[in-house]
Design brief:
11% strand
C-alpha cells in the first residue's frame, strides 16, 4: 500500500529502497513523480541554482575522488604512496625508465614496474619497485617474464 495515496498497488509500482524492511519505497512511483513535479514548479529557481553550483564544482570533486582512488590503488597494489610515485617520476625526468623507449613524455600515468622474483603476481611488497614504465614497455617486459635471454632472442 502506498502511504501517500493509500491505494494498494502491485510491487512493480514501487521503486526499490534497501533501507526498508520490504526493500521498497513507501510511496508508489506515481506519487513520487507527482511530488517531484510539484516541488520543481514551486522551487524551480532554487533547484536550478543548486544544480548549477554543483556542476561548477564537479571538476574539483572528480579530481579529489580520482586522487584518493589513485592513492588507494598505489598503496594496496604496490605499497607506495603518491609521493613515492612522484619522486620516482621526477628522478626519471617524467619519461619511461627504458632508455631505448621512443614514446617521449607520457601524458598518461606510467605503470609501476616491480621485480616478480620478489613478489610474483600483480601485488608488490614495495621494496621491489624498480621504476616506472610506459604501458608498451611494461607489457613487453611482463610478456617475456623479465627473461634477458628471451629479450635478446626477440632482438
Amino acid at each position: 500500500m502506498c502511504t501517500k495515496c493509500r491505494n494498494y498497488k502491485h510491487v512493480d509500482q514501487f521503486s526499490r529502497n534497501r533501507r526498508n524492511k520490504d526493500g521498497l519505497h513507501y510511496w508508489c512511483k506515481d506519487c513520487v513523480s507527482e511530488y517531484n513535479r510539484a516541488n520543481y514548479i514551486a522551487n524551480g529557481d532554487r533547484i536550478r541554482e543548486r544544480q548549477r553550483l554543483y556542476a561548477k564544482d564537479a571538476p574539483a570533486r572528480v579530481a579529489y575522488r580520482n586522487a584518493n582512488a589513485r592513492n588507494s590503488y598505489l598503496k594496496s597494489r604496490y605499497r607506495i604512496t603518491e609521493h613515492d610515485y612522484n619522486r620516482i617520476l621526477d628522478s626519471q625526468g617524467g619519461l619511461c625508465a627504458n632508455p631505448a623507449c621512443t614514446n617521449g613524455p607520457d601524458t598518461r600515468n606510467l605503470d609501476v614496474d616491480h621485480d616478480h622474483r620478489c613478489c610474483p603476481g600483480p601485488k608488490s611488497c614495495g621494496k621491489c619497485v624498480r621504476a616506472l614504465l610506459c604501458n608498451g614497455c611494461n607489457v613487453s617486459l611482463g610478456g617475456v617474464n623479465d627473461d634477458v635471454e628471451r629479450l635478446r632472442g626477440l632482438i
